[in-house]
Amino acid sequence: MARAPGEPIAPVVDHDEQQGGEAVGETREADRRHGAAMAGRLVRFLGALWPPTLVLGSVFAFWWLAAALEWTPQYLVPTPPQVLHTMREHWSGLMHDSLVTLYETVLGFVLAVLLGLATAVLIAYSRGFDKAIYPLVLFAQVIPKIAIAPLLVVWFGFDLRPKVILAVLIAFFPVVIAGVAGLRSTDPELLDLSATMGGSRWQTFRKIRFPMALPYLMSGVKVAVTLAVVGAVVGEFVGATEGLGYLLLLAHGNIDAPLLFADLFLMSFIGIALFVLVDVAEALLIPWHASRRAGTPLTTA
Questions:
Q1: Same structural domain for residues 123 and 156?
Q2: Which among 167, 147, 165 has a CA at the least distance from the CA of 238?
Q3: How would DSSP label each residue in 28-47?
Q4: Helix or strand or coil: residue 76?
Q5: Which range of residues forms the domain containing residue 47?
Q6: Cα–Cα distance between 221 and 176 in angstroms, integer?
């Protein structure tokens, strides 16, 4: 079309450049949203971190004050610098004993979870197995494990086995109880729907029963992972030549309070680290559950 005299010339728009500009704009917008989301997560993390940090700092300050003013003798309650000096001085030995206890704990915990889940499935699916095994599981739980620890040492010696067996025995019961409660809490209507659609027992377990039982099961696993540390240390109390439990007995016998406190800190760190790992696994396995959602109301108000 001919241009009229005096009419301005319209700029020529390159469609490729226009699409490229739109793509760049969308990319920048996505980056901005991603940065805002990361900043929001960081703010929420810091907001959740400061209350326990404040409490721990207050406890630490009170401990330091009580030890510095010698409210109790320092051979009973050492100062924090004494504990840190002991940890630096015995660092290699402490790390070796910590790795020994960690290995015993993890091995016992994994075995307890596998055996506990298998037992929970058998109890939930078999009424005869429920009546025969459930009372035995309860009976085994009420027996003090420290009472049978010497017997395990007599049977298996001073090697790894007594510690792992004690860790399994202590961590086994919470997994069984939580697994049975979860498997039995499946909505009967979902089971009827699965049967109507021709689902096999394995398909029903894999797609309905087990996913619905995971919130209960993970609660039991969280308890079990902390109890596994107790089981491993109890086994080291009775018969061991290495490990944090063995080192704790040595520190107690020598009235070495700084080494005893350093040992306790490492035990606590192992338990907390394993608990955090289980909590991360829970967040990955059941992100859909109400307990994993931010801002879940604690009451109906």
A1: yes
A2: 147
A3: HHHHHHHHHHHHHHHHHHHH
A4: coil
A5: 28-71
A6: 9
Confidence of residue 143 (pLDDT cuts 50, 70, 90): confident
237 CB-near residues (< 8 Å, 6+ apart): 146, 149, 245, 246, 248, 249
Question: How many of the other CB atoms lie within 10 Å of CB of 144?
Answer: 8
The dihedrals phi and psi of 23, each to the nearest 5 degrees, come to -65, -45
Evaluate whether residue 4 is within a structural domain. no
Place of tokens 């469609």: 15
Per the CB < 8 A criterion, the answer to whether 222 and 275 are in contact is yes
The answer on 264 and 149 residing in a single domain is yes
Q: Rounded to an integer, what distance in angstroms lies between the CA atom of residue 126 and that of residue 1?
A: 87
Residues 162-190, mean pLDDT to the nearest whole number: 87
CA distances from 9 to 12, 13, 16, 18, 46 (A): 9, 12, 21, 19, 58
- Exposed, middle or buried, 29 (CB in 10 Å: 0-12/13-18/19+)? exposed
Percent of the chain with pLDDT over 90: 15
**Length reported for the chain:** 301
What single letter denotes the amino acid at residue 126? S
What is the C-alpha separation between 143 and 51, in angstroms, rounded?
38
Predicted confidence band of residue 21 (pLDDT cuts 50, 70, 90): low
Taking only the tens place, the pLDDT of each residue in 41-86 is: 666 656 666 677 777 777 777 777 777 777 777 677 788 888 888 8
Q: Of 299, 281, 294, 249, which is closest to residue 110 (Cα–Cα)?
A: 281
Minimal CA–CA distance to 273: which of 105, 74, 43? Answer: 105
Nearest to 211 by CA among 176, 194, 186: 186
Residue listed under structure tokens 């810091």: 46
CA distances from 232 to 29, 158, 173 (A): 52, 13, 16
Q: Does residue 23 fall inside a structural domain?
A: no
- 115 and 246 assigned to the same domain: yes
